[in-house]
Amino acid sequence: MKSTRATPKESVCRTDDVLAAAANALDAVSDTPRLDAELLLAFATRRTRSSLLAFPERALDAAGAELFAALLSRRAGGEPLAYLTEAREFYSLPLVVSPDVLIPRAETELLVELALAAIASVPRPAVLDVGTGSGAIALAIKCARGDALVTATDRSAAALAVARRNAAQLALEVRFVESRWFEKLGGERFDVIASNPPYVRSADVIGALAFEPRLALDGGVDGLDAYRVLFAEAANYLDPRRGRLLVEHGWDQRPELVALAESHGWRVTAAHDDLAGRPRVLELERGGAP
Q1: Listed residue (197, 215, 213, 148) closest to 175, CA to CA
Q2: 270 phi and psi angles, rounded to 5 deg
């Protein structure tokens, strides 16, 4: 097994030599060690990745080499790349991320697409993103539907600070509310409620996931605690005529989740798989009384 220990070099080195050594150091912890090394070096030296590749003979200055070595050591220890570069792209939007928020995943883009489809024929739709984190879902919806009235909640003030920063940088107007679930929303009603809630089983919050905020991941012993709240309360905040609830879920949770939803009076109108063919999102409307 290759060593994952990254040691800063005291001498100034050529870019290509540094990248080769860094990729070797990350081989045991990353599926894309060379790419990780390039992105970390670009961040540390404030250069573009294309510039690094175009001028492999260029030497690193001492400050850049020192920062790169520190970042490399953290990556070799398993820390997610997005936290080290403080950035992640989601739905073609460049987002700031920090350890205060869940790292946006590509599979969550399906939730955005379905929310947009649900409001396609609704003028000035009201949309709620519950548990917004970095603001990824809310901002993607607002970017695609500028006329939408988008509200996003999170119980974490630190997460909302990141979301507001992203909204400001993207010049997108989203209302952010510090709230545990629906507590601060009064009697408001929405055309769509979308949520990527915590759904990882408590025992599975390990490895790289342990670097992310537990509040955004841990769904309890069976991973379904958040859905129990959503299914019990969301109907009170949906437009009773056309309201839709969209929830992301784990690939192996769909049967239990459907049963839980139906026990709370919801009807599953569609079940969607992600691009990898794994069960990912349920689309629900209010059915008969529970």
Answers
A1: 148
A2: -165, 150
Residue 194 φ then ψ, to 5°: -120, 140
Distance CA 158, CA 170 (A): 19
Q: What is the CA radius of gyration of the chain?
A: 21
266/259 Cα distance (integer angstroms): 10
Domain boundaries of the chain, sorted by first residue: 15-85, 100-286
> Which of 271, 259, 265 lies closest to 286 in space, CA to CA?
265
User: Model-level pTM?
Assistant: 0.90
The CATH code of domain 15-85 reads: 1.10.8.10
CATH node for 100-286: 3.40.50.150
- Please report where in the chains the tokens 């629906």 appear, as a residue: 182
Contact of 174 with 222, CB cutoff 8 Å: no
Sign of CA dihedral 57, 58, 62, 64: negative
Phi-psi domain of 103 (left: phi exceeds 0; alpha: psi -120 through 50; beta: other)? beta
Residue with tokens 């005529």: 241
**Cβ–Cβ under 8 Å, residues 135 and 142:** no
The label of the residue with tokens 């080290």 reads 84
pLDDT tens, position by position, 12-68:
578 888 889 999 999 989 999 999 999 999 999 888 888 888 887 777 888 888 999
